Structure formats: structure tokens, C-alpha cells
């Protein structure tokens, strides 16, 4: 029985707790948060709540890090040093350099490290990849993936210090890893990005279009936005030499609801909304966590690993650099170290 500890008590910790509750061989036994651990634990029947990360780490086998981005690296490293397997919510860290330190800490401690990116576990996207591998559309020439909604649910996402970036760090990380995974994770050779910041309450980018070139010549466009009014979009489309594959995760579900005022209990906004029959499973959360725990138990590297999280951060940093320079940038292209990924676009904190 693997004992799970949740670090953070927000929306994604609740989602992961619900996913773990469906699995055999594990139990969420502890939660850590500076402000709301007790309330969160009481609501989900978790036996131990604390503000002290070390107190949680003493009681668990797996630490699931679901805190603001700037805390991911230090908490993951502490968990590894305590002998815990580690699951880190996206993005892995505030910079690729930080992410590498997380990978090294887990390797040195001999513990497992998983990068919590759920899109490669989404059944619709998995079916698309299986069709691709069966030769249904021939070799891929172009991919496009979109993640968009009207903005995050918590103020920390708009904080440069806490989030280390805007919609690139929040949503383009999904798009980048989704297209990498779909193609079999070839090397990304070039990044060209256009970013814009349209919110009055934050200097961070809220809309991004990122063009990627991969080894072999396949190209992809990743669209990420907090500027979409009227719901959320998550789509993947692949153009091959002999056909096309496309999936809409959130809209073409076949299940629709109309309410005048909306309904929080069923995730419904006013008007017409589309719904998944099984939100956790359809979005890949249950399958993701089952895979991670199976890998930890067997001593295998998860399909979404710490190394994958580092590659994503390298691509996101290249996107910020590209937006600043106005040209294509290769991931890992030599540049000065930064404290946060977004500093490659905005400059050091405190600069205009």
C-alpha cells in the first residue's frame, strides 16, 4: 500500500486525490498547505493535515507536489532527500536549470520522479496516436494543439514571482508535451513564438502562439490563451500525407446541459455547456496516476518523466527568448541564466 501525501490544497490536489481514490494499492494519507490543509483534509476524509512539509514527508511514500510553480523544485528536492517518490504538477520547475536539479536530486536519492502531464493519457488522444501508428493517415506533416480559456482560478497564476510565467507556463506546457508525445518525442530543433499581455492586473503573457520544428521536418503550432471567452478548448489535430486526425476533448462529448444561471456542482456555466461522462477518466487523470504508481512500484521510469519536464521547460524558455528577439531560437541555445522562465522575455525582475 503506497501512502500518498498531497503538497498543496487547491483544485489540482483535489483532482489528484479523486483520481487516487479510484486506484487500488494506494491511499492519500496526508495533505500539507500553509492555509487550508485542515479544511481540505476534512472535506476528503484525509487523516493528517499539516503546514509542515517535513511532517508530511515522514508519513508518506509518494509526495504529489501541487503548489505554485516557484515552489515545485525546492519541495520536490526535499521530498527526494526524504526518500519519497515524487510526482510534480506541471511545470516541473521555474526554469530548465531548476528542473535539472530536481532530476538529479531524485536520481541521487534513488527515488522515482514523474511529470504530471495528463494529455498523453487522455483516451481520445491515445486513440489518435494508435490510429497514427497503424498508418491511418500516413506520415505526419503538421500538428496543431490548442489549450485556451478565460484565465486561471487563483491569483498566484498572475504573479511573476509565484508562477514564473503566464499562459506559456500554465497551458502551453500542455500543448508542447502533447505534440512531443504524439510524435514519439523527437528532438525539437527550433521555436518561434508570438506573445502578448492583455490583462491590466499582470505583466505576464495571456496569449501565445508557438511554432515548433522537430527533427525530421515535422512542424507544430501550439496555441495557449487566457483570452478565450465562453468556456475552454482542448483540441489536437494531425495532418498526414494520406489523411487527417482530429479530437476535441471538451466540446464534442455528446453530453450537453443548459442552465440559466450555471451550476458549480456540475462545472456548468450559464447557457449551454458540454460535459464528459467521466471527467477524471476522459481527461486522463486516473490513468496518469495509475501509471506513475505502477512505475514507482516496479522501479521503472514513467512515460512522462522528470527529463520530459526539463525538455518542456527548455522549449518554453526558447519561446520566451524568441518572443524577445523576434526570431527562431533553438532550445538550449546559449543564454544567460535566469531566475524565472519569463525573465527571458520580460528581462530581470524589476526591469520595465
Description:
The mean pLDDT is 95. Helices cover 34% and strands 24% of the residues. The protein has helices at 11-21, 37-44, 53-57, 72-81, 96-109, 123-133, 160-163, 167-182, 279-282, 285-298, 306-325, 343-346, and strands at 2-7, 26-32, 48-50, 62-65, 85-89, 113-116, 140-148, 188-196, 207-214, 219-225, 233-240, 244-248, 256-259, 271-274. A hairpin with a 4-residue loop joins strand 9 and strand 10. Helix 1 (11-21) crosses helix 10 (285-298), helix 4 (72-81) runs parallel beside helix 5 and helix 8 (167-182) crosses helix 11. The radius of gyration is 20 Å and the shape is globular. It folds into two domains: 2-118, 3-Layer(aba) Sandwich (Rossmann fold), CATH 3.40.50.720; 120-286, Dihydrodipicolinate Reductase, domain 2 (2-Layer Sandwich), CATH 3.30.360.10. The strands form three sheets. It has a six-stranded parallel β-sheet, sandwiched between helices. A six-stranded mixed β-sheet has the order 8-9-10-7-11-12. It has a two-stranded antiparallel ribbon with strand order 13-14. By secondary structure, the chain is of the alpha/beta class. The longest helix has 20 residues, at 306-325.
